[in-house]
Design a protein that fits this description.
By secondary structure, this protein is α+β, with helices and mostly antiparallel strands. It folds into two domains: 10-84 and 135-304, 2-Layer Sandwich (Thymidylate Synthase, Chain A), CATH 3.30.572; 85-134, no CATH class. The chain is 34% helix and 22% strand. It contains eleven helices and ten strands. It has helices spanning 10-13, 17-30, 69-81, 87-90, 99-109, 115-124, 126-132, 139-145, 165-175, 227-246, 267-274; strands spanning 32-34, 42-53, 149-153, 156-159, 183-185, 201-209, 212-223, 249-263, 283-286, 301-304. The two termini are 26 Å apart.
Length: 318
């Protein structure tokens, strides 16, 4: 089994990324090997935590492999629109959600179209995308339009106005900073079966301490090699945007995982990454303050001092 490279000096020893590498090593060497939904198999531990200080623009962007932060940012901005269709992502060359609607299309139609050809049809045919590009009421739908129902008479109910949890959190951070209810929840039990994938990063909570905004994200299921680098970035970016919108300084990001795992077919990536040492510290500049948290654009974000080591890839388990 691989062992994590050891920090060469006291400065390296304090680098936040050693937490990530140690978690990866622990899963790969000591995790429980188990069957999973995808059929690929995982090594898994239950219950993990990482902490990261967002002060001075610092961001949890891995240096031991290249993380495509613009892709992760575009996904977060897409969540905030409430969209559940992959077409806006496809048109930005964001590929991370393509496999799920493609698998559904092949399963339901029997047409064994190649993934690239399916994605090209999503991009070029709006009607096709409307029918086959939707993921069900995932993430953003729950975040900004959580469904409500109201009595319509005769024991029937009709759809009521949706709840914008993100807007509510912005308001509560400004009006009642000491509240323990600054929460964005994605786990809508009534709609899980209609989602392409139930939310993995399911719960976000925010906490004001002095003039700093802390963020916590709980992830019920975490692919540490491919998913977690994106999830850390997304949670940190959301915390940074909320801090700017509500007038606080960025505080600490706390990540908590439930079933935290590595897929058995990710061995080459794991071995390669565990042989590397973290270095440097990427920082995020937000170049303007939009009117609302829903008005950020990818051009508003600038990363400086990011010098990652080479990209590492592995197959996505669907």
């Amino acid at each position: 089994m691989a062992t994590t490279a050891q920090p060469s000096d006291s400065l390296a020893r304090r680098h936040w990324e050693w937490q990530y590498l140690e978690l990866m090593r622990r899963i790969w060497t000591d995790g429980d090997e188990r069957r999973d939904r995808t059929g690929v198999g995982t090594r898994s531990v239950f219950g993990a935590q990482l902490r990261f200080d967002l002060a001075d623009g610092a961001m949890p962007l891995l240096s031991t492999k290249r993380v495509y932060w613009k892709t992760a940012s575009r996904e977060m901005l897409w969540f905030l629109t409430g969209s559940t269709n992959i077409r806006p992502l496809v048109l930005q060359n964001v590929k991370i959600w393509n496999e799920w609607p493609h698998a559904r299309y092949v399963r339901e139609t029997g047409d064994a179209i190649a993934l690239d050809d399916f994605v090209a049809r999503i991009a070029g045919d709006e009607a096709f995308a409307s029918q086959w590009g939707d993921l069900g009421p995932v993430y953003g739908k729950q975040w900004v339009d959580w469904p409500t129902y109201e009595a319509a008479g005769d024991g029937l109910f009709r759809r009521g106005p949706g709840i914008n949890q993100v807007a509510q959190v912005v308001d509560s951070l400004q009006r009642n900073p000491g509240s323990r209810r600054h929460i964005i929840e994605g786990w809508n039990v009534a709609e899980l079966d209609t989602m392409a994938l139930p939310p993995c990063h399911k719960t976000y909570q925010f906490h004001v301490a002095g003039n700093r905004l802390n963020g916590l994200m709980y992830q019920r299921s975490c692919d540490v090699a491919l998913g977690l680098p994106f999830n850390l970035w997304g949670a940190a970016l959301l915390t940074r945007m909320l801090a700017q919108q509500t007038g606080y300084e960025p505080g600490e990001l706390v990540w908590m995982g439930g079933d935290v795992h590595l897929y058995l077919n990710h061995g080459e990536l794991v071995e390669a990454q565990l042989s590397r040492e973290p270095s440097g510290q990427a920082r995020l500049n937000i170049l303007r303050q939009p009117d609302t948290i829903f008005d950020y654009r990818i051009e508003d974000f600038e990363i400086v001092d990011y010098e990652p080591q080479g990209a590492l890839s592995a197959p996505v388990a669907v």
